[in-house]
Amino acid sequence: MIYEEYGDKHAPLLVFIHGGGVGGWMWDKQIEYFSKYHCIVPTLQGHGDRSDENTFSIRENAIELIDLIKEKGTGKYIHIVGFSIGAQICLEMIHLAPTLITTAVINSATVIPMKFVNALIAPTIKTTFPLIKNKSFAKLQAKQLYMDGEYFERYYKESLKMKAATLVEILKENMSYSLPDNLSESTTRILVTVGGKEKGLLLKSAKKIVDCHKKTEMQIIPNIGHGFPIANPQLFNEIVEEMIKR
């Protein structure tokens, strides 16, 4: 596990889990805001300094993070925040360690599998992967995540590092993930956030999470697509802070 550590190591633990195809740098505004907390920002399998890895597994990432939290968070309140596939990893962590985590903020997680798409992923990536190295194409992709501004160069650098095999695994994991059966047994308080402009599948997924866990709340953020922490970091930070203080 590769991670960055910030803030007060005696304070409650706050773990930020990035999305697929980006990196821990997407949480820069959160790290600055939550400087009084003990913040940890991990690098997921196949990303950044772990780009030599060819595989990606939501479950394996979750296990790595649970082990890290047990090492760093003994006797502390533990809060986790995840974006996109990072949010799916949060749900998997709650599934595997139902009493470990105090609160979780789940931003833009898909929990309705699209298994029929899996067969198309590998051939599609094989055809389109060279486009990732094209800067103009990368800017179009980055714009969908609100990363076409100050974050673009880091986003583009991250894209150049990633292997095609890793990208295939990330997409397969993302599109086949389903809600864990035992989520309702967890003691974790969950806040689900989703952008009002996001795809219907994400809105349906958010409602499905709420329906299966009595300690879950949901906020739909108007006029926001996929990338709330980047699009409006101040509002995102305030929502996270309110959740963990309660």
If you had to describe this structure to a student in words, what would you say it looks like?
This protein is α/β, with parallel strands linked by helices and 246 residues long. The chain is 45% helix and 17% strand. The protein is built from ten helices and seven strands. The chain has helices at 28-33, 58-72, 85-96, 115-128, 135-144, 152-161, 164-176, 200-212, 228-231, 233-245, and strands spanning 2-7, 13-17, 38-43, 78-83, 103-107, 189-195, 216-221. A seven-stranded mixed beta sheet has the order 1-3-2-4-5-6-7, sandwiched between helices. Helix 2 crosses helix 3 (85-96), helix 4 (115-128) runs antiparallel to helix 7 (164-176) and helix 5 crosses helix 6 (152-161). It starts with a strand and ends with a helix. The mean pLDDT is 94.
Short structural summary:
This protein is α/β, with parallel strands linked by helices and 246 residues long. The protein has 10 helices and 7 strands.
- Tell me the major beta sheet: 7 strands, mixed
Low-confidence stretches: none
**What is the 3D shape?**
globular
First-to-last CA distance: 30 Å
Supply the number of helical segments: 10
Secondary-structure-based class equals alpha/beta
Name the assembly state: single chain
- The radius of gyration over CA amounts to 17 Å
Estimate percent helicity.
Answer: 40-55%
Beta strand %: 15-25%
Mean pLDDT over all positions: 94
Q: In what order do the strands lie side by side in the largest sheet? A: 1-3-2-4-5-6-7
Query: How many strands?
Result: 7
Give helix and strand order, one letter per element, not per position. EEHEHEHEHHHHEHEHH
